[in-house]
Amino acid sequence: MSEGTGVSLPWIVIRQDDNGNRYRVGRYATRAEAQKIADSLDDHGHKQLYWVERIAQNGNGVHN
């Protein structure tokens, strides 16, 4: 859950650059919304990889 809003945002977009560094791009309510963002970023043609993961409901870890 996002802090203070009571809204669940269990889907995250991850970016990995060409050096292997990973960054969380954003959190989203639905997989479709997160995938749309990942696809639009991936379309820019850079070397970075983008993918969608779901945050575990207990907040411990991430799973696809």
In words, what does this structure look like?
The chain is an alpha+beta fold. It has one helix and four strands, in the order ββαββ. It has a four-stranded antiparallel sheet with strand order 2-1-3-4, covered by helices on one side. The longest helix has 12 residues, at 31-42. The protein is flat, with a radius of gyration of 12 Å. The mean pLDDT is 84.
Main pleated sheet: 4 strands, antiparallel
pLDDT averaged over residues: 84
User: What's the number of extended β-strand segments?
Assistant: 4
Structural class: alpha+beta
User: What letter string, H or E per element, gives the SSE order?
Assistant: EEHEE
Numbering strands along the chain, what is their spatial order in the largest sheet?
2-1-3-4
Distance between the termini: 17 Å
- The shape is flat
Instruction: Determine Rg (CA atoms, Å).
Output: 12 Å
pLDDT < 50 stretches: none
Portion of residues within helices: 10-25%
The number of distinct helices, counting runs of at least 4 residues, comes to 1
